[in-house]
Amino acid sequence: MQIALQIKYPTCLSDSIKKNGTKVDGKQNYQCKICKRQFIGDHALSYQGCHSGIKTKILHLMVRGNGVRDIAEVERVSIGKVLRTLSQSKYQLQSQQNYYETLEVDEFWTFVGNKQNKQWLIYAYHRETGEIVAYVWGKRDLATARRLKARLKQLGISYARISSDHWDIVKQSKI
């Protein structure tokens, strides 16, 4: 029984490759015929964080609501790999509409680094679709609420009314 592997160089995605000896640990080494760079195929990698598709998986799991530690455990990568992938991501929210009848503003907090560094995520969402329209990080104050208003304006989003859970800052900022 023969097993055929389709191996491509991860950077240029060329399938024009040749075997190029073995590494010290016995893994097959390959060389791209186009750019002459060496690599080990994904099938031979022992650390999952080096696989070419892991960044896409991490981002997909994060969007689906999984936590950093959960992603690291499920994908068998380090927490540092997950955090690096998230911090290097260029993901931007894309609103589905330009006008919303009602937007709701909500917030939650988390500690960043240590318990003295409390950060708030303040976001506007559309309840009917469950879509997060815009968000900002900061303190739970008037300046952050104004930054959310500016972010909505920057994205070209208009709305008839905005509501919150009795957070007076939203009324003061006249979002």
Describe the protein in words.
- The chain is α+β, with helices and mostly antiparallel strands and 175 residues long.
- 26% of the residues lie in helices and 32% in strands.
- The strands form two sheets. A four-stranded mixed β-sheet has the order 6-5-4-7. A three-stranded antiparallel β-sheet has the order 1-2-3, with no helix packed on it.
- Helix 2 packs across helix 3 (79-87).
- It is elongated, with a radius of gyration of 23 Å.
Write the layout of secondary structure elements.
Layout: E1 17-22, E2 28-32, E3 38-40, H1 54-63, H2 68-75, H3 79-87, E4 99-112, E5 114-126, E6 131-138, H4 142-154, E7 158-164, H5 168-173
Parallel strand pairs: 4-7
Antiparallel strand pairs: 1-2, 2-3, 4-5, 5-6
Helix pairs in contact: 2-3
Elements, N to C (H/E): EEEHHHEEEHEH
Write out the strand line-up for the largest beta sheet, numbering strands in chain order. 6-5-4-7
Given as residue ranges, the uncertain stretches (5+ residues, pLDDT < 50) are none
Overall, the morphology is: elongated
Brief synopsis:
By secondary structure, the chain is of the alpha+beta class. The protein has helices spanning 54-63, 68-75, 79-87, 142-154, 168-173, and strands at residues 17-22, 28-32, 38-40, 99-112, 114-126, 131-138, 158-164.
